[in-house]
Amino acid sequence: MAELSLTLKLPFYRLNKVKALEFERLTAVNTQVANNLLLVDKKERKKLTSSAFHHVEIGSAWINQTIRNTNARTGVRYFKRMWLETNNQNFEISKQGNFYTVAFNLLRGRKGRIPLDVHASSHTEILEKIIDGSAKLGSLKLCKSKKGIWYALISVSMEVPGAGEVKGWIGVDRGQNNIAVAALPKGFGKFWKGGLLKQLRRQFQRTRRTLQKAKQLKEVKRLEQRERRIMTHINQVISKELVQFAKDFGMGLRFEDLSGCRQTMKQTKKTKSDAANNRDSWAFYQLELFSRYKAIKAGVPVESVPAPYTSKSDHRNGVLGVRNGDWFKGFDGYRCNADWNASQNIGQWIGFSCSLDLQKAVSAMDAVDAEGGVNDSPLTSEASKQVDLSPA
């Protein structure tokens, strides 16, 4: 069994204005409590409990959580907003008729029950598990979106069946021309194109430059947040399709380990100045993160393999070839899509990046591709025998 942790973002169903204004007012009170705590010495602050704020009308469980949250934010000098939050002992989820509801005592001595607007296809199953006790509640946070909609953020942890036996592994190559390419072992690949997203990033970049010249900094920040939300949505959609693709064929997912790639991948100033090509602005890790938690829920195993030497290696034999744009060319003239070739290497990874005789590996790489292979695959022991390593 594997443990899955999720946070459900559930809007309140037809929340009336009186309650909305009450949430707004108590959030302001809670924020003031947090800012007052910042004025207290850190050592003394850790000793405080809700008894020190008995004059505040907010329930003690909420105040205690505010104290914990304030102590955790060590580098903050002032809070613009501290959302109301409580642990699982102070609220409960139930079903009343056709509606799921959350009950909590926000004010001292007063408990209320508010219906939630639940999307049947996404959260009903989890809420049912909460009610029957097979899922464990975490915390409840009340927050408001910029559109004025109040949400209940409910964290949940539950056990899901572990990943079973798989027929093989689907390699997932991430990039910019293609956001993701997933290829079946020695089979076809599924492509998620990045052209429209590149165009969108350049459009946002041009708009931000115009606004920065006009010193409209608030609008610049708003556009940055909007661009981030769009990228998050795209990654959510792609990760869902990736997991379903693996589930349909009874296979696992393999990603290349891109940790530290921003330090190892060199970029020119011209590349960095273009939002569409700057690798620092692409959410590669987020796509993997979304895919992982969805895969755990679906019982699909996920692995990471070393990233070096996967892009220019020939998936047939591991010999270095030449990558030219979207195409890969093997030493024998074989041609195929470069991203598909990389995903094949990731999926059937059998140790291309294991330690080899470095002198022979360097000689072999020079023999095949004189420009080097910074991000690509060295020869396997079998493939190296096919290349003449004798000095010229």
Walk me through the structure.
- It is globular, with a radius of gyration of 27 Å.
- 39% of the residues lie in helices and 23% in strands.
- The relative contact order is 0.10.
- Residues 353-392 have low confidence and may be disordered.
- With 392 residues, the chain is of the alpha+beta class.
- α1 (17-38) crosses α3.
- The strands form four sheets. A five-stranded mixed beta sheet has the order 10-9-8-11-12. Strands 1-7-6-2 form a four-stranded antiparallel beta sheet. A three-stranded antiparallel beta sheet has the order 3-4-5.
- A hairpin with a 2-residue loop joins β4 (99-107) and β5 (110-115).
- The chain has twelve helices and 15 strands.
- It starts with a strand and ends in an 8-residue tail after the last helix.
- It has helices spanning 17-38, 42-45, 60-72, 120-132, 195-213, 217-248, 261-264, 269-273, 284-298, 338-347, 358-368, 381-384; strands at residues 2-11, 84-86, 91-96, 99-107, 110-115, 135-144, 150-160, 169-174, 178-183, 189-193, 252-257, 302-306, 322-324, 327-329, 335-337.
